[in-house]
Amino acid sequence: MSERPLQGKVVVDLTTALAGPYATLLLGGLGARVIKVENPDTGGDASRNNSPYLTADGLGVRRQDADDMSVSMLVRGRNKESVTLNLKDPQGREVLADLVRAADVVVENYSAGVTARLGIDHEWARELNPRVVYTSISGFGAQGGPGSGKAMDTIIQALSGVMMTAGAPGEPPVRFGLPVGDLVAPLYAVIGTLAAVVQADRTGRGQHVDVSMLGALTSLVACEPFDALEEIGLPTRTGPTVPRLAPFGIFAARDGWLALCAPTNSFAHGALRAIERPDLVGDPRFAERDGRVANAAALHDLIADWARDRDVATVCAAFTAHGAPAAEVRDPRAAVRDPLVAQRGEVVPLADPRFGTVAELRATGVPIRMSDSDTTLDRPAPRLGQHTEAVLGELLGYGEDRIEDLLKAGVL
Amino acid sequence: MSERPLQGKVVVDLTTALAGPYATLLLGGLGARVIKVENPDTGGDASRNNSPYLTADGLGVRRQDADDMSVSMLVRGRNKESVTLNLKDPQGREVLADLVRAADVVVENYSAGVTARLGIDHEWARELNPRVVYTSISGFGAQGGPGSGKAMDTIIQALSGVMMTAGAPGEPPVRFGLPVGDLVAPLYAVIGTLAAVVQADRTGRGQHVDVSMLGALTSLVACEPFDALEEIGLPTRTGPTVPRLAPFGIFAARDGWLALCAPTNSFAHGALRAIERPDLVGDPRFAERDGRVANAAALHDLIADWARDRDVATVCAAFTAHGAPAAEVRDPRAAVRDPLVAQRGEVVPLADPRFGTVAELRATGVPIRMSDSDTTLDRPAPRLGQHTEAVLGELLGYGEDRIEDLLKAGVL
Q: Chain B window 272-311: which residues touch A at a Cβ cutoff of 8 Å?
């Protein structure tokens, strides 16, 4: 466990908000040295000012102390070092140039065109360091998109088609509270970055990696051939149940909800036995899949009637005992506390640099376990500029006087 | 564009169904040589027998010809070579051992414990080739999970909490038609695989990479601090609109639906001008964010009333013209035909090995654009065993007689 996969790789992190910082969080967990560059004039990453904050008295809507950190930053800032740098100042760009010369990877999620205006785009970085992999995450791609080009998660969800894969025909589109548009793009960005690092390690040449939120989420939607399925009469919006896989879907129990997925004969017969109707296993309506699909409504009603007055735990145990896959529907609060997920470190307790581990709060881990390497997010989020002097001194070799001058000039 | 990022890397692909094959599809698009190992006795990957099929007459529920391929395989089999191999036969395992010796990566998505029973688990592969990265994708992790351990996508969605981030309080959980459980795990598996490849290229040692569907999706849910938000009074299930960001959400127009995301003063004032109510910009209920949140229902009603009798295109154009981010809600059929997404190759036309590009069908691409490398999925899916002789002959150096004997023995 002594060495992490990306040990020795330096990432210059120019990202803010969610999509970009989640990409660099994963790179940090995998062992890269992530140097987060933040604007001293605006208070750094906007996520630092997202309510709620962790205070000495626990969670609060407002800061009690200037050092209180937002939960967003506590989650996304782990395993990163914070350096302040004003990129609109020519001296700031010179410091950034030195960072890029020392880097293996640059990640940015400015709006399309901004890095060119700031004079820090891929062409500039490549001149400084031909080996560097320069990754851009944007709403519609590095060349920009239609309209205002504002790529908020809900806009991306709407355009990608994903909202129309849930709910039933005629119902409104379904907006997810989980920002899947913001969260899927960084996964592809990390894949592209690492593939380009493999290539750069081999060839000595980096390149520009360009991932769009719209393209990422639409590509995920296009993993399923929704229009081919509809063309042969398999509608994709069917509400809580899926008649073509009956018995299949979400059912209400007395104290909650559960999912049952029993499309095969073996599973379906187990489900019938679980609801105390073994007599129906040989019934021509339910014995084979074609019959179950034709009689899906009746079958789903039988299950719903049986489950309605029982506890979720009882219903799930009965289905499982008869070999039919079933599970309770959990809310996020319960889900992130799953003992197996905790044991595997896929979700971890959240730590504050001052208060230590805060037992009540949970945060995303790196959901990748490796036999010979650690992928734990084990260093708490940094204060704004906490590592400025260390990085400029140790990594870039700047003397104390030069750092002092840059501080006085407002560059840092 | 002459060299792909993973050029020269060999992936032995033991996966079936969706999660595993999507991981190796991405590795193939990034330039790895993906050798898909399929069981000759069962007709290979089960996806080969997923209706619908592409026939000479177009899409059909049933095959017309033995060579007709399923849409699932046409999508997931691209940029892969197919080798048949019976892994229950000791001679089959010997051939697999030779493949593993030639490989950089092995990917499998058997149920937990199966590779050990077959005698082809990570320990076995490591003995043969210490450099190999061996990636497992499973429902609950390589050590198995609770209950039946059947990890169907809907079961994973239920357990992960994601179903309770959509809809409104008291409403049933929301099942997504897009199998996000199946699709997110392979993204983390590719990230873990590539990170381990970077490490193996550096150290000469591979390792086991273990990704669970439940851990992957729960980790994604834990990117947002849902319980911290609820603790300070920001409920996460709010239906189509989000009062705390008002005006924000999904609205009905005459001929469809649209998303409006206008939480800032500038966006919100633009939205009021767009609905021809510039008089309300200075109204104390709507001028500042606190007022808009307190009067969210009234604000959303104003917008809903104005949009209801207008076309989606008109409504979106009005919002956009006034600087308020808005977009139509598209269904998957329309979304995968977005011109920008097509131009960037994030979704591509689907090709059949016999019929060529089938203009009507679309399939996922690799949504990662690289300045100096190609990531196109440009080779159509293989027939079952199409590359058996070529791979055994060229890559493993088997003579014709040996291949003939293995064929006669039913090993291939």
A: none
Full residue range of the structural domain in which residue A81 is found: 10-220+339-408
CB pairs under 8 A between A and B: 478
pLDDT tens digit at each of 412 positions of chain A: 569 999 999 999 999 999 999 999 999 999 999 999 999 999 999 999 998 999 998 899 999 999 999 999 999 999 999 999 999 999 999 999 999 999 999 999 999 899 999 999 999 999 999 999 999 999 999 888 876 567 899 999 999 999 999 999 889 999 999 999 999 999 999 999 999 999 999 999 999 999 999 999 999 999 999 988 888 888 889 999 999 999 999 999 999 999 999 999 999 999 999 999 999 999 999 999 999 999 999 999 999 999 999 999 999 999 999 999 999 999 999 999 999 999 999 999 998 888 887 768 899 999 999 999 999 999 999 999 999 999 999 999 999 999 999 999 999 9
A20 and A47 inside one domain: yes
Least Cα separation, residue A391 to chain B (angstroms)? 24
CB A263 within 8 A of CB A248: yes
Same domain for B188 and B56? yes
Q: Which of A229, A261, A365 sits opposite B154 (nearest CB)?
A: A261
Q: Give CA–CA dist A47/A16, Å, rounded.
A: 7
What tokens were used for A109?
Answer: 């999620």
Q: First vs last Cα of chain A: how many Å apart?
A: 36
Distance between CA atoms of A350 and B288, rounded to whole angstroms?
33
Would A228 be classed as within a structural domain? no
Domain boundary residue, one of B265, B297, B330: B330
| Strand-pair partners of A259 | A250, A327
- Residues A349 and A277 occupy one common structural domain: no
Both B318 and B384 in a single domain?
A: no
Name every residue whose Cβ is closer than 8 Å to that of residue A81 and which is 6 or more positions away in sequence: A33, A34, A35, A36, A382, A386, A387, A390, A391
Question: Do both B387 and B291 map to the same domain?
Answer: no
Answer yes or no: is B229 within a domain. no
| CATH number of residue B350's parent domain | 3.40.50.10540
Task: Decide: residue B158, CB within 10 A, 0-12 exposed, 13-18 middle, 19+ buried.
Answer: buried
Q: Which residues of B are catalytic?
A: 182
Q: Which residue of chain A has the CA closest to B210?
A: A369
Looking at B330, B359, B387, the residue that finishes a domain is B330
Within this chain, do residues B289 and B404 fall inside the same structural domain, yes or no?
Answer: no
Number of residues that make up chain B: 412
Q: How far does B320 lie from chain A, in Å, by closest CA?
A: 6
Asked if the C-beta of A51 comes within 8 angstroms of chain B's C-beta atoms, the answer is: yes
Could you tell me if B252 and B307 are in contact, meaning their C-beta atoms sit under 8 angstroms apart? yes
Residues A351 and A404 reside in one and the same domain: yes
In Å, how far is A216's CA from the nearest CA of chain B? 5
**Nearest by CB: B223 against A22, A164, A341:** A22
Q: Output the domain CATH number for residue A281.
A: 3.30.1540.10
Q: Do B220 and A163 lie within an 8 Å CB cutoff?
A: no
A137, closest residue in chain B (CA to CA):
B368
